[in-house]
Write a structure and sequence with these properties.
Shape: globular
Radius of gyration: 13 Å
Low-confidence stretches: none
Strand content: 15-25%
Structural class: alpha+beta
Strand order of the largest sheet: 2-3-1-4-5
Distance between the termini: 11 Å
Mean pLDDT: 81
Number of helices: 3
Order of helices and strands: EHEEHEEH
Number of domains: 1
């Protein structure tokens, strides 16, 4: 699972209470049980910070690398959660209402690229 959090910067240096709050928010938005201990920062040059949660380290690394250019361009005000399971790919974009063609294009490209995740 990959999720965005509004705290840009070095995840490792954040206070534990901020990490816990960020992971709880992602868990509430996605309905997936998550823990701070399993969160790995996934760096991008964008405005949002992304956290990666994997059951097996490296299992989706190639697919997630394909998402990097799209994640760098993701609007930070919309929390994003991408969850890959045997049942398919689920993309959650909290409070994201498609109001522009540009945002629709971002979502479509994200969905198409995420479709390659395992």
């Amino acid at each position: 699972m990959l999720g965005s959090v509004p705290a840009a910067g070095n995840w490792a240096s954040l206070p534990d209470w901020i990490k816990k709050a960020a992971v709880e928010k992602l868990a509430n938005e996605s309905g997936i049980q998550l823990s701070v201990e399993s969160a790995q920062e996934f760096p991008t040059a964008g405005k949002a910070a992304f956290l990666l949660f994997e059951q097996t380290p490296g299992e989706n690394r190639d697919a997630i690398q394909r998402l990097t250019p799209l994640l760098q361009d993701w609007p930070a005000q919309f929390n994003l959660v991408i969850h890959s399971s045997p049942k398919g790919i689920h993309i959650y974009a909290a409070d994201c209402f498609i109001q522009t063609v540009a945002l629709l294009d971002k979502l479509l490209r994200l969905g198409k690229t995420a479709g390659g995740m395992g």
